[in-house]
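Can't paste images in this forum, so I'm doing it all in text. The chain is below; anyone willing to post the predicted structure tokens underneath?
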Amino acid sequence: MFSLYEDVGTVTWPLDRTAAYAALLSKLSRLRLPVEQANAEQGKVVVRCLTPALSLGFWRCWADRLVFQVKEAGQNASTISIRAIPNLMRFKTEPGEALSDLKTITAQLAAPN
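Text version of the structure:
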């Protein structure tokens, strides 16, 4: 379990929890975000991607994981919360590392299939 995280956003889908979880895995695959952990029972998916998580003046902290949590939001509706897990020991990127944009990921998840 991760104790430090940054809330990135929330997306609501008109699907039950099981269908939303399966659709999330499919969308993450299409976005080419590698799944590190997946737990259908908890509705949690952890993916590896590099993105800026926190910026405080000249200091920038990078996140190398995103956690997606699928929860039932009512009859035939689910919410997916997106959280970035900051790596407090990482202060810069290395040449050749691919960066992911959190706003783009959230927008693509919010868009219909």
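The radius of gyration is 14 Å. The beta strands are 6-13, 35-39, 44-56, 59-74, 77-87.
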